[in-house]
Amino acid sequence: MTHLHDLLAAVDAGVDPGPFALVRRAEADGLDLFTGSVRTVDRLADIPLPAGAPGPRTLALVPYRQITERGFACVDDGAPLECLLVGRHERVGLAEALAALPEGPVRATGAAFDVGDEEYAATVGRVLAEEIGRGEGANFVIHRTLTATVQGPPLVAALAALRRLLLAERGAYWTFVVHTGTRILVGASPERHVSVDDGLVMMNPISGTFRHPGAAVDRAALLRFLADPKEVEELYMVLDEELKMMASVAEHGGQVVGPYLKEMSHLAHTEYLLAGRSTRDVREVLRETMFAPTVTGSPMENACRVIARHEHTGRRYYSGVLALLGHDDAGRQTLDAPILIRTAEISPAGALRVSVGATLVRHSTAAGEVAETHAKAAGVLAALGLGPEADAGREGAPRLADDPEVRAALAARNAPLARFWLDQRAPDAPGLPGLAGRTALIVDGEDTFTGMLAHQLRALGLAVTVRPWHAPGPVDAYDLVVVGPGPGDPGSATDPKMRALRGLLTGLLDAGRPTLAVCLGHQLLAGLLGLPPHRRDAPYQGLQREVDIFGTRRRVGFYATFTARADTDGLDTAYGRVELARDGADGAVHALRGRSFAGVQFHPESVLSPDGMAVLAELLPPLLPGRPAASGTGHSAAGAA
Locate the Glutamine amidotransferase domain: which residues (predicted)? Predict the structure, then answer.
């Protein structure tokens, strides 16, 4: 008799079998059974990863509140970081597991969302108007939670739900039940957050949701979904955000692979894969990628503030991760971490929670996002007896992704994207003449797009340092200072960040130091030159446009709610003549350049900017005409801070 049968026999007899996890990974032909002891730790760095034989060593349940490790805001509910220390690991065949797991019905009563449909729709409206509409970010995920009470022994119900998920759900990255003694998690997560194997870091941004009833999928409706600008832009935005994360953990940034169609029982999603090489400890990788933009928003730090403003309860484990840490045969660290979505948390007393969220972008509608939360909950709720069971009739049907028109529609999504992130890049490729060996400081305005920008500047030959806007330090050791992007109102006279960045820019302009300003930096620079920013009627968040940049048509990506405007192509300022590249229709200033400075309203580093590298290659050399790094100015990167 296997260990699984012993464990299930104890559960059937009403005896607590001790902590365990039963996991099917990426539609494997078997399941992993982990048993051992549980330890609670405070930080991700404290997750045990003991040396020893190859294989999994620790399964960590990482709650959303761990985001505070990065200094980000959250509604802190005190959910613990629990670690199952793997004492025994065995593989169980899928057929054996299905035969052994309980088949009885799962019953739960008193099901209701903590935030009703009307209240959730009102929140959607507020976020669109007050956050996206005021420049706080490009997209945000707001959650709601269905609560109910499980009838009968909770562990029996969770194991029966696991069996139903194994039979009915398709396309899951992990299908699992985890029992720690203080809680049970059961679910079928579609999304890998991050994995590390042989030094290769992989991330899996998923976004865009096509709802279908099961077997009878409307092919024409699917093709309309794949062409829907909202769904396309939503995926591009989370791709950009995860590329920012990959830029921080992979030595040469990430390479984009895809897109693909992920097919599940009630839904289909579009997804990309990102890959990059890293030598960092897997716990550092986990920390630097907390948490996926598909469950938070972008830019990440401000998305957490927005979530805390609009969510009145903590998320517990929703949008956190399960993290399986171990070693391979060569002793290298491994990590496999799915996002905790489409997951139920059950207490020992039978209290049930299923949290879901919708990604809010500028095209969102309240009714559409309410419907999306219901659809996302459908699979796990069906397994718990709280909804109709998934139609298993597609089990032998052809995959939708194999349809030639579907493949063509997916492939077409890459046509407008930046090849810099899609193509394999040689890390030792030569940079531009005149830039190789020069140094650049990027001042981060709370948007880690700066990490992607750093990789582009390094590819052009520059040695790059990134520094937060509030961190003091000199700028006179660098040939170029880049005042980077970030959220917020550039016209604010009281925001400490805006005051500090204005002070920095003023010092740079006065000293004639080579300066590049991007997005927020550009808006602040334009204001100092006499062109105060205006709020757009319709935000340019995640929008790609072809615009004229100093006589050349360039296709670039915008993430902005504010823009400077001008009615002329040139401007005389205290810092000399400034040339403006502006929109002929509304006067929006897309770029500017003067004797020692340049600014761009768009993001040359974005995956939405296929001409971003060309713009940088045009703007930077004139700013650095063979001059060495200046000294003695003593300006601080924190400006007036």
Answer: 441-618
